[in-house]
What does this fold into?
Amino acid sequence: MRQRPWLGPAVTLVVAVALWFYPNLVDAAGWPIFYLLFAYTVFFWVTQASSWNLFTGFSGYFSFGQGAFYGVGVYALGVLVVKRGWPLLPTFVVGGLLASVLGLFIGLVVFRLRRLRGEIFALMTLAVAFVLGAVARISPTIDGGQGIPLSSVPTPDALGTHPQMIFRLGLITAVLAVVVVQVVQNSRLGWGLFSIRDDEDVAETLGVPTFRFKMIALGLTSFLAGLSGAVHALQVSYVTIEEVFNIRVPLMVILMSILGGTRHWMGPVLGALVVHTMSDRLNRAGLEAVSDIIVGALLILMIVAIKEGLYLRMRERPLVTAIGAAVGVAAGFVLGPLDSAVTHLAYTLLGAVLGAMVPVGRRRRPQSGAPATQTIEEVVGG
Amino acid sequence: MADLRFEDLVKHFGGVHALDGVSGHVDDGEILGLVGPNGSGKSTLINVLSGHYEADSGRVVLDGEDITDRPAHRIIEMGLARTYQIPRPFSTMTALENVSVPLMFGAEPKSPGEAREAAREWLEFVGLEAYADEPITSLNLHQLKYLELARALAARPRILFLDEVLSGLNPAEVNESIEMVRRIHDSGITIVIVEHLVRVVTSLATRIMVLDRGKVIADGDPGEVMRLPEVVTAYLGKRAQSA
Amino acid sequence: MSLWTQSIVSGLLSGGIYAMMSLGMSLSWGVLKIINLAHFSFILLSGYFTYQLAFSYGWDPFAAILVCVPVFALAGMALQWAFDKLRVSEFESLLLTFGLFIIFESIASTVWTADFRRMDTVQNPYQSQSVWLGDIALPVPQLAAFVVAVIVAFGTRYLMEKTDFGRAVRALSQDRDVARAFGIDPHRVAMRLAGLAAAFAAIAGVFIAMSRALWPGLAVEWFGIVFSVVILGGLGSTLGTLIAAVIIGFVGGVATVVGGPPMAPLAIFLVLIATLLFRPQGIMGRSSI
It folds into this structure.
């Protein structure tokens, strides 16, 4: 990997600025509002998957807690803005911070353990969403089992109409999440997390402050998830415990990140785009039950067969990926119906994914070298 | 300058006393050989001194400072580095990335970019520069052990603990590794070496400590120590029986 | 007073079902190093099978054990066979079985829909029957589950400590290579143990179908309880699991009296946190199987 740490964030920001005006384009061209909402949902999943990947993908500690962090954000907005009348924008941040508090609490309990930290962390995060659901159900100040209507939330006019505002808020959080992950990936924090994932004991004896790094990463992950949850609350008109604290969000982010690849920031972004586009088309075709089965099967396939994820695979095989994408475009025209640009996109992505999965290519091996004769002083001096 | 002392270290696993009141010291500039039969506590001692395990009781003092309860990442920062008997490289990184990790931490942390550049030179030092950008799966055992060395050296230790760096190597590789240890020592790094090839240790070490069942049974000049009767029965006797 | 006693006794009794659900999970995680989320699917599907056998063919729910146990034991063995073939790590097992869990859940909601399914009193006469202890009612399904769980737990303990199979399992839980050196075929032992674990799940499913309504989302609700029991009991410990299940049942019962049913998961979670903080090896530790 070349060392150009500024490149990723720079490109992300340029793309973000261009996308900022996409709602104006949709408006001017007279495209359906669905094009905005579809893009928002992609942003939402990009944020969630990137956030999950920052901690789990980089450190290797498996988290099912995404739904809990996300849920804290949703409910923070519901309770504080709707019931308490807090202003909207600061509450987004509060939602993120509350989610962080939860994340750090779990970390504090589990990371002290000497054995089975990873397994118990996973199960703890699995249980925590359910417990939060119970808390919300008991407490009338939070939910009390009634749910919270959100359609009456006053929104700022500066960001345009409601769909335009949703799109732009989603874009901002997604850009924030992606840039944070990009920066972490190329920082000491990122390398520390990678070394923890590979061998935590060795990382610690080589100088990595493992506990602190895990806590920082978990804090960032849960903050982004909570922030994104708070924004997402504006998109749903009614919040209920069953809708929020279920297994859906963790399932989707796990699948998206594993599919795209957990080693690189681009993995979850690609995974979110592919998975959401596909499942949107399947749901539209009335195949919701099938879509879950496909999700489960895909997850198994990735674990067993393509551990490095789609992004790295595509990068190693640009040609077959491009051919696949081209075949996908062509297949779209032949098979149809191309009623929407999203269907086009689905065909193209499917083609590229299948193309990348074709097993081709081999690595070369280097010749062995004898130890050099220089001294340590020369190494250190040079 | 490095002055490491340890007093009454005790460590047990379940009912087994891996260390049963071990005291000693590491002098600046020496090559200290730790020997003893299997299960005598040599590796446990290294694990405790490097912070990999927490001692149940006892004290470790470096330059007059008590470092017993320091986390391992602080201990390496103070100049104590170690290698593992069975190499434990970061398996998803290249050789270069493996060596760059310790360079990003410690007393003078480098940015990831600087660390990569510096790591290249440590790979050259152990002769692995050709493998810099290869996944570690393309390295054999001998090379993996060198990678461990490069990684430990990159942390700029004052004292380096080598846990069985020679085990599993063929005679040519053993000789090459001994030369490597000498070169490291010549550059002013104090070395503590655990090794079960007694002949190698006695020729390499400037002092030898013999452990048996978690206790120190002898400590002194390599030639003399290995002739003491209690060492012969405890160490060689046991080895002869098990052989 | 009687409400208290009644709730606490029901709580303790539900410990029987919890134990039945958790025993297989504990063995699988503690010995096979497989965190098997499909275990929950086995419990759920076994429950639905029991319901369907009663609904379509008028089977007595207890008789469903005769079908469910062999079916899921085979499924568990097949799964373990695949895990061995693929050489999955502990973490991969978690992910793989998560995928399976999702698949089974959507199959369940396709076949049985998202509605509540419950046997009526004709199909399942036991749900309205109770054994009376003074003025305390012991519902037959829970009581039966409790008795069976105790028998199974002690039976498994006997199996692990006194038989060749148990010795092989213990060797396996410590070191696969050593076990192989002693002439034990790790794959065969692992498959049998996985079969046993899945059979326990099947029994648990039968009792659950007897005592409550089923719906596909139920399995997710069990995660918290079962993992609390498994961790509190100590991985791989049969008696620990039994005791932990009763403790968790008791805690849930008390919490329900104090704060209503939603309080139970919260109280159980607090027990889990306390366990992790103060006795992470569980009440019986890892060494005793």
In short: The mean pLDDT of chain A is 87. The two ends of chain A are 23 Å apart (CA to CA).
